[in-house]
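A quick word before the example. In earlier lectures we treated sequence and structure as two separate objects. From today on, think of them as two lines of the same record. Here is Olfactory receptor written that way.
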Amino acid sequence: MFMIIYCLLTSVSLTALGSQNKTMHFVTEFVLLGFPGEREMQMFFFSLILVVYLLTLLGNGAIVCAVKWDRRLHTPMYIFLGNFAFLEIWYVSSTVPNMLVNILSDTKTISFTGCFIQFYFFFSLGTTECFFLSVMAYDRYLAICCPLHYPSIMTGKFCVILVCVCWVSGFLCYPVPIVLISQLPFCGPNIIDHFVCDPGPLFALACIPVPSTELICYTFNSVIIFGPFLSILGSYTLVLRAVLRFPSHAGRTKAFSTCGSHLMVVSLFYGTLMVMYVSPTSGNPAGMQKIITLVYSAVTPLLNPLIYSLRNKDMKDALKEVLGLRINQN
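And the structure line, produced from the sequence above:
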């Protein structure tokens, strides 16, 4: 199905190009403008983003270590959380190091291949995050709504299967959009007013209008985003209905506290993601697109470990013991 669509789009593109009686020089690299401004402002952005990146690695790395070393956290909920923190490390690393190099660079160039490699890993990791958020919501649904059946359903084997499905599915989703966009004719200019290789700016640089390809990609993004989101919404609707039936106030408070961290992460991630990729952003200012992208690609991964650790007593205790043990050993 996708290959038929791809062949049709390629045929249309070649026909349109053939009708133009001029020689086109296809670009071999792009220029990522990043954050414009004076050198002092550039260095401020560099320092700020570097600090955010290092804190993100430290926070998420601490959660991964806590889940690995503390046997009390060897339960499905924390296994999902540990994988999610590990994912966040790679997610932020898919864009921020190149962003930092770009700020210091005079040319600010990225090769054509490098641009689409970054595109692939950034969006594949983002898709994997959507799947993990959905699976974590399902885990909370089982724990709260089906507590008696939870141990028999969420076994260690089933937990591992869900983790593998999230990782594998996330990386299998984006080859088709990558192929469709990379085969578009880019004949100049090659300047992307962004700090990452993003579909919107790439569509704007194509030599010919490609509404069908844009429609396919926006539809694809909508399915990837709304599928897990509706699953999360359904899980927490059932959780809310079950929690409101709890007889004790203490039970309701504990249940809301358990789910509150996850809901905050979902709100942060999906709020910016939907604004950026579900609705066409061609009419939005480039500065706004950069801010939104920066929030979900760098700020959200920084806040996630804070949200989970500050609102979770078991995680706080595990982090204190693990960090204290490592310090004593050193």
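Notice the following. Residues 1-25 have pLDDT under 50 and may be disordered. We will return to this example when we discuss secondary structure assignment.
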